[in-house]
Amino acid sequence: MINSAFIFIAVSIVLSLISFLLDREKTILGFKKGMKMFKGIAVPFLNILILVSLALYFIPQALIIKYLGAGSGIWGLTIAAVVGSITLIPGFISYPIAAALIKQGASYTTVATFMTTLMMVGVVTFPLEAKYLGKKVAALRNILNFIAAIIIGIIVGLFL
Amino acid sequence: MKKILAKHKQYVWLACYLTATVASFFFGFNPGKEIFGNFTKFFIEMVTFIPFLFIIIGLFDVWFPREKN
Q1: What total number of domains does chain B contain?
Q2: A-B interface: how many C-beta pairs under 8 angstroms?
Q3: What is the pLDDT of residue B1?
Q4: Residues within 8 A of A (CB atoms), B 9-28 only
Q5: pLDDT tens across B30-43, in order?
Q6: Contact B10 A54 (CB under 8 A)
Q7: Domain for residue A53, yes or no?
Q8: Residue B35 to residues A40, A56, A109, B18, Cα–Cα distance (Å)
Q9: Per-residue pLDDT band at A138 (split at 50, 70, 90)
Q10: Could you give the CA distance from residue A37 to residue A59 in angstroms, rounded to a whole number?
Q11: ipTM score of the complex?
């Protein structure tokens, strides 16, 4: 974890330097833009972290293993897919949640399915999607993605 | 009062948690300490790369502007 963070930091520093040498003003503008976005997301993000650490304490490991672990089978997949379809969480906030779930004994199959439906299937945002794309397209897209997410989960499980 | 609360709504949860954590350490309440341990672990992991992530996003936004309709 620390190593990959170091690589990432090094890459971003190098990119920033190149950008700075090419165009000083653009780079500063980019920094400002990035930090503005960071400020916008910081508090909701901290709130999610608090929620995850609370959940980690209160939900016993045995429960997670039973319902989302390797032996949970079709029910684990169903729970993961349905919960992922309903909840509305930005992509990169889902990573710490996924890591916590795996640490607590959830299988890669269920976590992969959860993350995929989280991003590709939106029940709550369906009316909005239907407004822009039409009901037929939105329904078809969501249903196909739901099925795809389960297949992705199973394939991930086969490899890991 | 309502207005102030609505404006700082997103900080309420954070403030509650901080108060509870400080209280946990003050009174030696173990679950609170453990939850704080979980939180710090996540927080350190995240804080090491998320600011840099946003720097890259910002740079990307400047160099490759989104198409304007």
Answers
A1: 1
A2: 98
A3: 66
A4: 10-11, 13-14, 17
A5: 888 888 988 888 88
A6: no
A7: no
A8: 25, 8, 27, 11
A9: very high
A10: 32
A11: 0.78
A64 CA: distance to closest CA in chain B (Å):
17
**Helices vs strands, H then E, count in chain A:** 8, 0
pTM higher than 0.80? no
Residue of A nearest to B36 (CA): A53
Contacts of A14 in chain B (CB under 8 A): none
> Which of B11, B35, B58 is opposite residue A37, by nearest beta carbon?
B58
Q: Over the stretch A51-76, which tens digit does the pLDDT of each residue have?
A: 888 888 888 888 888 888 888 888 99
CA distances from B68 to A31, A131, B27, B65 (A): 21, 21, 56, 8
* Predicted pLDDT of residue B68: 62
B47 interface with A at CB cutoff 8 Å = no
- What is the rounded CA–CA span in Å between residue A112 and residue A83? 12
Contact B58 A96 (CB under 8 A): no
Domain with A7, as residue range(s), is: 1-41
* Domains contained in chain A, number: 2
Q: Tell me whether residue A8 is in a domain.
A: yes
Upper half-sphere CA count for residue B45 (Cβ side, 13 Å): 16
Residues above pLDDT 90, as percent of chain A = 49
> Quick one: A35 and A82 in the same domain?
no
**Does B52 reside within a domain?**
yes
Q: Between chains, do B61 and A1 touch, taking CB under 8 Å as contact?
A: no
